[in-house]
């Protein structure tokens, strides 16, 4: 009997603890509401969710904590130009609510792609939903570039020559590929990029497969395939590799959010052939899906502390790292992620640290 009573008390205490914890997390959000916040904000074309979050919150990544879904609105996670976002207080707690504007509820009609015996239309909003962050810097990374295991590219078909013995080719040219390619299928032409290695564990995290162009197979003769380059972002070179096209949904309407668990990682690369990191640069971090990273996660960037000489102890020591910026993860792979640097307070560099914001 005593054991059962103790068990019930324990469960009750745990339940109360969860309630108190949830209440504390909810009540804390009020202190991050900006003092100069608008009561109502009307979304305009060119806005991003990050910008709008910053109008209401000192910490924009806490947006999901106060966003209240209106079940009467279709796709309430999507926000369109003309929508009105109002800050209201319920039982002393802040909430953001959405009033749909014309762009989000006015539809254009297009023929349905569903086989049916009766006429149908497919309805889509007149305006595109606003993205979480500016797409200018990351558009190519959302679909085209990818990270793969090194063995994937090592075993992939590769370009051996172009038509007329040309070795540099582009859109509209025919190329010859060593390997088997199903007839009439489309493929990505990629180039081997850097191998990403964890600076601490030395684990190989993946190989960058840089998108070069798109091709369509036309014929197969033994192990030599003929391919037409249908489009190219760069010149196609001998030894470029051929990979199946990725069929993946591009979603830039994710919400900024804090990671679900503790994160401690590093910036291991920056795109553009440089080592210094600035605002709106795309970086690679050594944390991915297996560490719980998700699209939309915001991380604080800490400038790696400098090395200093302790003359008393006759030692070299590293000074503490200092917070120096923010980034948002926009694409996640198994062992690493791509992020866009949103804010910088000082010059950053490869090997600077990333942590929970």
Describe the structure in your own words.
With 357 residues, the protein is mainly beta. The protein folds into three domains: 2-103, no CATH class; 140-244, no CATH class; 264-355, FlgT, C-terminal domain (Thrombin, subunit H), CATH 2.40.10. 15% of the residues lie in helices and 39% in strands. It has helices spanning 2-28, 49-56, 63-66, 102-105, 139-143, 150-154, and strands at 40-42, 84-90, 93-99, 107-111, 121-125, 146-148, 158-162, 168-169, 174-178, 186-197, 204-221, 224-232, 236-237, 241-244, 264-270, 276-277, 282-285, 298-303, 307-310, 315-318, 322-332, 337-344, 348-349, 353-355. The chain is flat, with a radius of gyration of 26 Å. Mean pLDDT is 83; it is low at 1-27.
> H/E element string?
HEHHEEHEEHEHEEEEEEEEEEEEEEEEEE
Task: Write down the oligomeric state.
Answer: single chain
The main sheet comes to: 7 strands, antiparallel
- Report the radius of gyration as a whole number of Å: 26 Å
User: Got a strand count?
Assistant: 24
Terminus-to-terminus distance: 47 Å
Q: How many discrete structural domains?
A: 3
Shape: flat
Uncertain spans, ≥5 residues at pLDDT below 50?
1-27
Topology, element by element:
Layout (H helix, E strand, L loop, with lengths): L1 H27 L11 E3 L6 H8 L6 H4 L17 E7 L2 E7 L2 H4 L1 E5 L9 E5 L13 H5 L2 E3 L1 H5 L3 E5 L5 E2 L4 E5 L7 E12 L6 E18 L2 E9 L3 E2 L3 E4 L19 E7 L5 E2 L4 E4 L12 E6 L3 E4 L4 E4 L3 E11 L4 E8 L3 E2 L3 E3 L2
Antiparallel strand pairs: 1-2, 2-3, 4-5, 6-11, 7-9, 8-13, 9-12, 10-11, 10-14, 11-12, 15-17, 15-24, 16-23, 17-22, 18-21, 18-24, 19-20, 21-22
């Amino acid at each position: 009997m005593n054991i059962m009573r103790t068990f019930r008390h324990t469960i009750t205490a745990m339940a109360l603890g969860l309630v108190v914890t949830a209440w504390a997390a909810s009540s804390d959000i009020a202190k991050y509401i900006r003092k100069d916040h608008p009561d109502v904000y009307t979304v305009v074309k060119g806005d991003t969710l990050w910008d709008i979050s910053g109008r209401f919150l000192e910490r924009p990544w806490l947006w999901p904590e106060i966003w209240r879904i209106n079940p009467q609105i279709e796709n309430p996670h999507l926000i369109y130009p003309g929508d009105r976002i109002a800050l209201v207080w319920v039982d002393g707690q802040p909430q953001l609510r959405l009033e749909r504007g014309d762009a989000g509820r006015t539809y254009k009609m297009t023929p349905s792609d569903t086989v049916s015996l009766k006429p149908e239309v497919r309805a889509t909003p007149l305006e595109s939903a606003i993205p979480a962050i500016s797409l200018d810097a990351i558009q190519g990374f959302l679909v085209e570039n990818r990270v793969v295991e090194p063995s994937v590219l090592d075993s992939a078909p590769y370009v051996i020559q172009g038509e007329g013995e040309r070795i540099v080719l582009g859109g509209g040219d025919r190329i010859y590929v060593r390997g088997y390619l199903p007839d009439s299928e489309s493929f990505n032409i990629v180039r081997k990029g850097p191998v990403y290695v964890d600076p601490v564990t030395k684990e190989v995290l993946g190989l960058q497969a840089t998108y070069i162009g798109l091709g369509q197979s036309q014929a197969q003769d033994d192990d030599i395939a003929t391919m037409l380059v249908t489009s190219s972002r760069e010149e196609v070179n001998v030894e470029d590799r051929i990979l199946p096209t990725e069929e993946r949904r591009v979603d830039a309407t994710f919400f900024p959010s804090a990671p679900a668990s503790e994160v401690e990682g590093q910036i291991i690369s920056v795109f553009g052939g440089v080592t210094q990191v600035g605002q709106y640069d795309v970086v690679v971090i050594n944390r991915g899906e297996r560490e719980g990273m998700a699209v939309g996660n915001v991380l604080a960037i800490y400038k790696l502390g400098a090395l200093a000489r302790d003359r008393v102890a006759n030692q070299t020591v590293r000074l503490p790292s200092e917070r120096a910026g923010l980034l948002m993860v926009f694409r996640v792979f198994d062992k690493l992620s791509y992020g866009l640097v949103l804010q910088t307070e000082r010059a950053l560099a490869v090997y600077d640290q990333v942590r929970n914001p």
